[in-house]
Amino acid sequence: MNNGSRRSFLKTGAALIAGGSGAVALAGAGAPAPAAPEAGNPLAGLPDMARDARLITAQERKQRRDKLRATMRKLGHDAVLIEPGTTLEYFTNVKWWISERLTAVLIPAEGDMMFVTPSFEESRLRELLETTADVLTWEEDQDPFALIGAWLKRKGLAKGTVALDESVRHFVAHELAAAAPDVTVTSARPEVTRCRVIKSAAEIALMQLASDITIRAYRTVYPMIERGMGREDIVRLMYQAQAQLGADSPAGGAQIGKGSALPHGSTIPEFVDDGVVVLMDFGCSVGGYRSDISRTFVFGEADAHQVAVWNHVRKGQEIAFATAQPGTPAGEVDVAVRRYYEKAGYGPDYRLPGLSHRTGHGIGMDVHEPINFVRNEQTPLAPGMCLSNEPGIYIPGRYGVRLEDCVYITEQGPRWFSQPPPSIEQPMA
Question: Where is the signal peptide (predicted)?
């Protein structure tokens, strides 16, 4: 990038990045899309890789609800209540927002689901419905929970069990219990997790496309990184690249120098320079499904210590991948990585210098989902599960290295969404 285009880039990026790393953290959750790159910018010629993405169908969402209902019946749950968020979208394709005005769905074990929403939102909600559902509306001076209580009574569930999605707010649970005092309120985590944790071929295909876009963005942006750039400069480039490639909701951040020793970064400004570590952690969304990929490199030439640490982290990824076999408790992956790191002189456990966080997390519509590669996680890995593989080594006051690539479990073993880089000299290969 020449000096003129770099100055222009910094100027146009200021509004989005204002507020530093805090703004970065919010970018995947409703931030405006980054501005299109100017003519002559290497990002301007990137293709729309998401153009032909095959989105989740109404038929697949019906299958999800059928699976949910079957699990509810096994657990003795009569209905599941879900507020706006990814779980609502997962089961109904209704994209809504959290508000003090209640909009929610009740999915019963038998019969049509029921939405409750303010009267003035009814028309908008009905536009979003792709299947038969009751819609109960309430005026501003009415109690939506009384409507829910009456609906449960009409359905013969006045003394039934209503399970709440884990994102349901406390006041909703409290008011529901007050409006339907004979109803047993419990958690819907078992049935919702059972559905969401196992991804279909269509879900995996969308996650693969999101990962392909993030990798293409990394390979495009890496040669554009220059001495003197700050983390906001790198963030802007990655956001623009992923958006230009057709992704939604680009997110993530970059940490430079000593800030890379903190897994989620520092607020202290640092800048790219010779011999300095740069840790990049970015992702995006395609059709509602996320990617999450981290890369670490040294600007210029790495010293022997940096090479050794990078190689240890890469070996940790290999150990995690080899351990993540179907039927293996997910926690064993974390145990195996820490065992290797301790033999290399790091830790023990979560102590620094070493690995201060879990080895990986579930991923899907949300960046972080159940289950995790963390000690004591006893859930056996099963085909269709998708998780990040992201061991790191962090050396306070110096730098940190993290490599992150996500995997999906098959009957034959784990498969990569993105191939880890071969060496610190080829960090984006």
Answer: 1-27
Is residue 391 a contact partner of residue 313, using CB atoms and an 8 Å limit? yes
* Count of beta carbons in the 10 Å neighbourhood of residue 34: 24
**Can you give the pLDDT at residue 362?**
98
Mean per-residue pLDDT, 194-221: 98
The per-residue pLDDT for 292 is 98
Q: What is the pLDDT of residues 151-189, one digit of tens each?
A: 999 999 999 999 999 999 999 999 999 999 999 999 999
Model confidence at 260, in pLDDT bands (50, 70, 90)?
very high
Joined together, the tokens standing for residue 323 give: 């351990």
32: confidence class by pLDDT, cuts 50, 70, 90: low
HEC profile for the chain?
Answer: CCHHHHHHHHHHHHHHHCCCHHHHHHCCCCCCCCCCCCCCCHHHHCCCCCCCCCCCCHHHHHHHHHHHHHHHHHHCCCEEEECCCHHHHHHHCCCCCCCCCCCEEEEECCCCEEEEEEHHHHHHHHHHCCCCEEEEEECCCCCHHHHHHHHHHHCCCCCCEEEECCCCCHHHHHHHHHHCCCCEEEECHHHHHHHHCCCCHHHHHHHHHHHHHHHHHHHHHHHHCCCCCEHHHHHHHHHHHHHHCCCEEEEEEEEEHHHHHCCCCCCCCCECCCCCEEEEEEEEEECCEECCEEEEEECCCCCHHHHHHHHHHHHHHHHHHHHCCCCCECHHHHHHHHHHHHHCCCCCCCCCCECCCCCEEECCCCCCEEEEECCCCCCECCCCCEEEECCEEEECCCEEEECEEEEEEECCEEEECCCCCCECCECCC
CB distance 370 to 229 below 8 Å: no
Q: In what order do the strands lie in the sheet with 360-362?
A: 369-373, 360-362, 386-389, 405-410, 413-416
Full set of structural domains in the chain with CATH: 3-32+199-416 (3.90.230.10), 58-196 (3.40.350.10)
Closest CA to 263 of 403, 372, 55: 403
- pTM of the predicted structure, to 2 decimals: 0.91
Q: What percent of the chain has pLDDT over 70?
A: 92
Report the relative pairing of strands 386-389 and 405-410 from DSSP bridges: antiparallel
296-309 per-position pLDDT tens digit:
999 999 999 999 99
Q: Is a pLDDT exceeding 90 seen at residue 5? A: no
